[in-house]
Design a protein that fits this description.
By secondary structure, this protein is an alpha/beta fold. It folds into two domains: 3-123 and 200-217, 3-Layer(aba) Sandwich (Rossmann fold), CATH 3.40.50; 131-195, Alpha-Beta Plaits, CATH 3.30.70.260. The protein contains seven helices and 13 strands. Strand 12 and strand 13 form a beta hairpin. Helix 1 (3-14) packs across helix 2 (30-40). The protein is globular. The relative contact order is 0.18. Bound molecules: ribulose-5-phosphate. Ribulose-5-phosphate binds at residues 27-32, 81-84, 94-100, 103.
């Protein structure tokens, strides 16, 4: 089974978590896209979705699945999204697709966060994948200097603007041994909008696609 087949397999497994009449949060990325495509086959069961990016909203609408504003619907029962790295403690790095801010908002507004990922994303320690940090444009070099002082190597994501009009720094050379502490600390740098560590609000369930089937953690 290749990586795409494993992503599709976990995306389809996440459908089990949906209940009749739910409005659900939908993430961003290639694994989330498989989830959206699976959702299209049972869209009559849900009342709508809240998308974590413009790209996902477009894909949902392409399947004629209703997309609602988070402000209109309040808290959600379920959020389904992928990850760039995940640990067995269900801490994540997200934001490879640049949608981390809206993803963190929708995850925070959801009672249950089901993370879907192929097994290559499972790590013992977060940080090999460069950590995405969304920054206000005028703070870009200030934030970068604060990160260099901490021994890491921030790299501006080239020609990229988030859905919120901001920039992304991809931060190399971080070994994230204390994810909740580092998330809070980096969030506290002025000009940082969102850090791609999801540890203060981790996933509740991690569905991992492996060559021998779906493994459930959490
Ligand atoms: C987007 C994300 C994605 O969930 C993450 O990048 C994983 O993507 P993929 O499912 O394509 O591997 O955080 O901002």
């Amino acid at each position: 089974m290749n990586q795409d087949q494993m992503k599709k397999q976990v995306a389809e497994a996440a459908i089990e978590y949906i209940e009749m009449g739910d409005v659900i949060g939908v993430g961003t990325g290639s694994t989330a896209n498989y989830f959206i495509d699976a959702l299209a086959k049972m869209k009559g069961k849900i009342d709508g979705t809240v998308a974590s990016s413009q790209a996902s909203a477009q894909r949902l609408q392409g399947h004629a699945i209703p997309v609602l504003e988070l402000n209109e619907v309040g808290d959600l029962p379920l959020y389904v999204d992928g990850a760039d790295e995940a640990t067995r403690q269900l801490h994540l790095i997200k934001g490879g697709g640049g949608a981390l801010t809206r993803e963190k908002i929708v995850a925070g507004a959801s009672e249950r966060f089901v993370c879907i990922a192929d097994s290559s994303k499972l790590v013992d320690v977060l940080g090999k994948f460069p950590l995405p940090i969304e920054v206000i444009p005028m703070a870009r070099s200030f934030v970068a200097r604060q990160l260099v002082k901490r021994g890491s190597l921030p790299e501006l994501r080239d020609m990229f603007k988030t859905d919120n009009g901001n920039m992304i720094l991809d931060v190399h050379n971080l070994e994230i041994l204390q994810p909740t502490k580092m998330e809070a600390e980096l969030n506290n740098i002025s000009g940082v909008v969102t850090v791609g560590i999801f540890a203060l609000r981790p996933a509740d369930v991690l569905l991992l696609g492996t060559p021998s089937g779906v493994e459930k953690l959490g």
